Amino acid sequence: MDRYRFLMSGSGGQGVITMAILLAEAAAIYEGRNAVQSQSYGPEARGGATRSDVIVSDGPIYFPKVTQPNYLVALTNEAMGKYLPLIRPGGMCLYDSDLVQPDLRVDARRKGLPMHQAVLDTLGLPVAFNICVLGALAALTRVVSLGALEKVLESRFAPAHHKNNKTALHLGAELARPHVDD
User: Fold this and answer.
1) In sequence order, what DSSP letters do the residues of the chain get, joined into one string?
2) Using CA atoms, how far apart are residues 41 and 146, in angstroms rounded to an integer?
């Protein structure tokens, strides 16, 4: 039985919770797997610490909280410092190489990609940064397909956002592609 434990973290306003919801929905609705998503965040609407857990499994899921993730997404230095020590030995940590400096003392595969800058260069605004991160995560883990994520994005967002979301999703996958088997 395959079980994937994701801990996604960052700062309020970065789209961490949205990213987790999209991942769980893609897995459950379009990939036919079991998935749960939970979240917690600081009292600030923007700028406070944000965490969202996703578990994707081919079997039953009995507890919705991730205590030792296989995959960590850290979008701030604070998130990296707080959650990287929880990662399972040999797990993978995805972070933005321009925004976050990883701790090198933990046994984890580190995947630092310049996602934020790539979104700015491509779209002119960081509005789909989280979607770019999600595309990279999908390419690196292969837990859900880009096709499943595209369907979720189309069902969740207004048509005016479809083009930018699809561009950002595939941008993240392209940035990750050289690191897939590292």
Assistant:
1) --EEEEEEEEETTS-HHHHHHHHHHIIIIIS--EEEEEEEE-SSSSSSEEEEEEEEESS-------SS-SEEEE-SHHHHHHHGGGSPTTEEEEEETTT----TTS-EEEEEE-HHHHHHHHHSSGGGHHHHHHHHHHHHH-SS-HHHHHHHHHHHS-HHHHHHHHHHHHHHHHHHGGGTT-
2) 27
pLDDT tens-digit series, residues 73-111: 999 999 998 899 999 998 999 999 999 987 667 788 999
Domains and CATH numbers, the chain: 3-179 (3.40.920.10)
Residue 171 tokens read as 């941008």
Edge-to-edge strand list for the sheet holding 49-57: 34-41, 49-57, 3-11, 71-74, 91-96, 108-113
Contact call for residues 66 and 5 (beta carbons, < 8 A): yes
CA torsion through residues 159, 14, 89, 35, sign: negative
Share of the chain above pLDDT 70, in %: 93
